[in-house]
Design goal:
Number of strands: 0
Order of helices and strands: HHH
Helix content: over 70%
Strand content: under 5%
Radius of gyration: 20 Å
Number of helices: 3
């Protein structure tokens, strides 16, 4: 087997496993935020959470597939590890960026939901955090 093909196989195994693991982590933790955002409507929170996870996985797996072909041909074992480090490192950076974006979006919606709830209950609004 060509070392470039071996690199592809290892790369896909690592990135698919990472994508699934991060997606499951998002699903578990994000459901708590979404439940609060939707004022305890668990069915709606679960549906939106599932859609977020599917979208996350599609974006990541699509990038993984496109990123597969980039990079030089692998000639030796050292090249295999170097290619894997660049490819997997790039995917990890993108997963991290998507994770931060996910948290920012959920936090923004959570703040909005809490403000709406406070106004419905006639409570004073909390001061906006300083930036």
């Amino acid at each position: 087997m060509d070392l470039t093909v071996a690199t592809y196989i290892v790369y896909l195994a690592i990135t698919i496993a990472l994508t699934v693991w991060v997606g499951r982590t998002f699903s578990r933790a994000g459901l708590v935020f979404l439940s609060e955002i939707f004022h305890g409507d668990q069915k709606l929170a679960e549906a939106v959470n599932h859609l977020f996870v599917v979208g996350f996985c599609l974006v990541n797996l699509g990038f993984d597939a496109l990123w597969l072909r980039y990079g030089p041909a692998v000639a030796d074992t050292r090249g295999l590890f170097e290619a894997l480090s660049v490819k997997v490192g790039t995917v990890l950076l993108i997963l991290g960026a998507l994770h931060l974006l996910d948290i920012l979006v959920l936090n923004r919606y959570r703040r909005r939901a809490l403000t709406e709830l406070a106004s419905q209950l006639g409570l004073p609004e909390a001061p906006a955090p300083s930036r």
